[in-house]
Design goal:
The complex is a heterodimer of chains A (112) and B (116). With 112 residues, chain A is mainly β. Chain A is built from no helices and 12 strands. In chain A, strand 5 and strand 6 form a beta hairpin. Helices cover 0% and strands 47% of the residues of chain B. Classes of the chains: A mainly beta (112), B mainly beta (116).
Chain lengths: 112, 116
């Protein structure tokens, strides 16, 4: 079945450092890809998404590009802030958005 | 606009007792999901509703779990009897009709269940 694998954490960075969180997927057909973020004490929030190959999703300085050839959707940010500390989940769904399949999540800690 | 509302936020019960969780989705969202999130893992789908109909309940342990969505709006998820291994966060999410394309799912804050 469909699955998502993301890099294990926690990832600890200093403020203004460059961030990459790797995500690869296995799926049939043409899934949509997502990054969700969970801040402490809050629910999951959609951070960005891409619905077809070569699409780039972006939001709040974060970016991820849908790479069909490498089945990847890596999350990047050029300069992280302390407020970016959270758990980041990579996910996929079928083209109709019927079911989200999540990775295990990556904890990001940014220190000042 | 109010988001997805879940209650209670926290629940502690003894094993073998029943427990119920409630979810109010975003107004107008006809698709509702219940997810289970174990500690250190990503959420896993338990059941998906399109209006009142449960269209995917393949991952719901039907021997002890049940769910309903009366009138296609609010939903309840019940566990009876609860087991120690049911300790987890139960997430509710809603979205617009997904048949026309990939749509965003909005999540509630979840109910953290502890079974002792």
């Amino acid at each position: 079945g469909d699955s998502v694998t993301q890099m294990e954490g926690p990832v600890t960075l200093s403020e203004e450092a460059f961030l990459t969180i790797n995500c690869t997927y296995t799926a049939t057909g043409y899934p949509s890809l997502f990054w969700y973020v969970q801040y402490p004490g809050e629910g999951l929030q959609l951070l960005l998404k891409a619905t077809k190959a070569d699409d780039k999703g972006s939001n709040k300085g974060f970016e991820a590009t849908y790479r069909k050839e490498t089945t990847s959707f890596h999350l990047e940010k050029g300069s992280v802030q302390v407020s970016d500390s959270a758990v980041y989940f990579c996910a996929l769904s079928d083209r109709y958005g019927n079911k989200l399949v999540f990775g295990a999540g990556t904890i990001l800690r940014v220190k000042s | 606009e109010a988001g997805v509302v879940q209650s209670p936020r926290y629940k502690i019960i003894e094993k073998k007792q029943p427990v119920a969780f409630w979810c109010n989705p975003i107004s107008g969202h006809n698709t509702l999901y219940w997810y289970l999130q174990n500690l250190g893992q990503g959420p896993e789908l338990l059941i998906r509703y399109e209006n009142e109909e449960a269209v995917d309940d393949s991952q719901l342990p039907k021997d002890r779990f049940s769910a309903e969505r009366l009138k296609g709006v609010d939903s309840t998820l019940k566990i009876q009897p609860a087991e120690l291994g049911d300790s987890a966060v139960y997430l509710c999410a809603s979205s617009l009709d997904g048949r026309e394309g990939s749509t965003e799912a909005f999540f509630g804050q979840g109910t953290r269940l502890t079974v002792v």
